[in-house]
Amino acid sequence: MASPQNNYSKNLLSIVRDVIWAQWNRLGLHGTGGINCYSTDIESSLILAAYGSRLDGRFYEGVWCWLKCYGNLVNGQRLATLIASSNDEWIARFFGGLLENTDPKQWKGVIQQCKKLLSLPLNLEPLLIHSVKREWRARDPVLSKWGVLYNQVIPTQKMQDHERILLNNSLMRYRYLYGTVIRADVFYLLSVSHHCRIKREIDFLTTVRLADRLCCYISTIHRIQKNLETGGFIHASGELKKKRAKMTTWVVKDLPCLQSTAGYDLGTIDWIKINAWLIAIFKLTLALEKIEYESISKVRIQEFQSETFHLLTDHGVHLPLSYGSTLGPLQDYSIEALMKMLVEALQMFYRIICCIILVRCRTCRIVFQSPIQGNPASMIQITLINNTITCPHCKAKLLLSKPDFFYYDGLGREQELKFISNNNRLI
Question: Is CATH 1.10.10.10 the classification given to domain 166-252?
Fold first, then answer.
């Protein structure tokens, strides 16, 4: 594999790790990078942690701590369903060992589902994909039983303050209130759709879309929605036609019981599909390392982009028009160009969901991450002083009060950021 392709693969895995941390930073872990400002999905984030742990061992220890504190908020049946639908032996190994280490009685049903996906005999495989060869002096016996090689550790406290976690997570509050039932998740997603200021197509929720998003039967969602409609909590958008009832968009009424968190839940994310895409990126990069012929690598990348890029456009990521829905003649694109396209698309998705504060250099016009970061809803209270920063690309010196600070909204549009200047006026 060519050296530039190796570099892009490293960049891809680095951004994948950042997106995983963004989800878990929101759910309460102390990680690196940004925080997801859009909707959350606890079970889907757990599934993704199985591969996040292959990139960063802190995920294993962090999720272990999180389950000890908030395992009662996990829908065990839904988690088992997602594990089964993944049909991924590594995910089964990971959760078999993790859940048996936390509380085998509580997670008995999920562990049984994990056993169904195992192929015997199990070969020991390191948890981290880039583990160096060494003597494992303190193997975790439970993980080893599940074919995962990792040191036995006692997870340290990696959680944020409980009050802060609850303040930033409406889904967790709904589950404390209603229990780990689909009804809590339905009400959560409908409330996110109700409160989000900028609506995309994926934010308009129908019976079919909710069933797909929550990985359950359409009849289950339909029954819940009929109950909420009868109770006066929701109503159909537009005329309700019997033959198309399950395709009708449902709208939550503006009720005092609706929970919202300032600066968060800015829109919905189809995390089951997005996280499956992230896992596919992980597997693609490892597969490309073993392919010797450039033509085969091009085909693999092109097929991957054609099958998955529509998902990004649904979430506000704009793709270059020159590519279209397909990449055209493969010989017109180098592997570097194809990989760069994938890196930029993933980076854009990360910037959108975390509302990363960006700066556009007025000299070279290249966009880069601002040294000042925070939730845009609270950034207005920050007072700027006339410090200078250096553009990492052209090395130009820029006054902090001069560059254009902005972030990307859910539609992929630039939104200006307002600050308070030295004289307390908005700039």
Answer: yes
